[in-house]
Design a protein that fits this description.
Largest sheet of chain A: 2 strands, antiparallel
Largest interface: A-B, 48 and 50 residues
Helix content of chain A: 40-55%
Mean pLDDT of chain A: 86
Structural class of chain A: mainly alpha
Order of helices and strands of chain A: EHHHEEHEEHH
Radius of gyration of chain A: 18 Å
Number of strands of chain A: 5
Number of helices of chain A: 6
Oligomer: homodimer
Chain lengths: ~150, ~150
DNA sequence: ACTCTTCCTACCAACTAAGTAGGATTACTG
DNA sequence: CAGTAATCCTACTTAGTTGGTAGGAAGAGT
């Protein structure tokens, strides 16, 4: 499994938004309705702002984020952090989880002695989905505050 | 999980070699000691020969294949197909199974609210390994002859 | 009006994957 | 001892993706 910078940033941004909303005003930019500015997210996790903006746009189009423009604008989660899984975020920015030579695992088009391979990739896809779909953002935030403190 | 063409070809080549060895002379190039020529493998699975040669070289260096030069040369498995797993082949040509932004999942270097992410990637890596390490080449060949005939 | 922020498009550099070409090396054959 | 057939190995080319940047246009508040 290859996790691209895009997927990595997306998850970190979502976690930062969730932390700012649930944990109250922890030093981010959200003061009023829990909106967090893109610049604050980029700063908090050390991500390039311009690049992050494109990712936030994808997350909004996928329905995971709600945005507001203007002076007191920013981003917020559309659902509680406990109802957003890691898989949701990954699929929002990266398409399907498993791909063979750029194509989804379903239509790999094997023949002859290699026919059995397709079942392997489907099994892998299921195994990955089991992990990333059962893990929610809220769970990761709890785990973080329990193990290490920023 | 992204399966590169290199990994895909490696698995198909290994399966073809295994089929030629165990199943006897099935129309490939191996006639004497069960050696299969690279050209026969390329033909059987529709892979570019020059590209395949580099992959076969990796598989040989990883100790999965045994090669022989000369007029009656070719490739053969060093172990029975039942003792070679899909994971063995993948690791021989592709390095580690899971990587975050090019680095192994172990040293991703998260901090702050993103600390919990590393556990997710490690869990994914374990889940993938469970699938690909439990599946052997022999198992795939049996599965193939049972479901579809080439 | 003015400022702030999200939104959106286009562009650039670096890297990797995929495939090609050509020759050196080894082994068998007559 | 040639000659041939195959693996072996290195270098190169090409195309696509990734990561990142720049510069505005559009909306929201004061």
């Amino acid at each position: 499994m290859y996790v691209s910078a895009r997927s990595d940033y997306a998850l970190r941004a979502m976690l930062a938004v969730a932390a700012a909303s649930t944990g109250g005003a922890g030093g981010y930019g959200g003061d009023g309705a829990g909106l967090v500015k893109a610049a604050a997210l980029a700063e908090a996790q050390g991500m390039p702002l311009s690049f992050l903006q494109g990712i936030l746009l994808d997350l909004r189009r996928a329905g995971l984020l709600h945005s507001h423009r203007g002076t007191e604008g920013g981003y917020a989660l559309t659902r509680p952090a406990a109802e957003i899984s890691v898989g949701d975020v990954l699929r929002a920015v990266g398409g399907s989880l498993t791909s063979v030579r750029g194509l989804p695992a379903q239509d790999a088009g094997y023949h002859g002695v290699a026919s059995g391979l397709q079942d392997v990739w489907l099994a892998v896809d299921g195994a990955i989905a089991l992990v990333v779909d059962r893990t929610t953002l809220a769970e990761l935030l709890v785990r973080e505050s329990g193990t290490a403190t920023a």
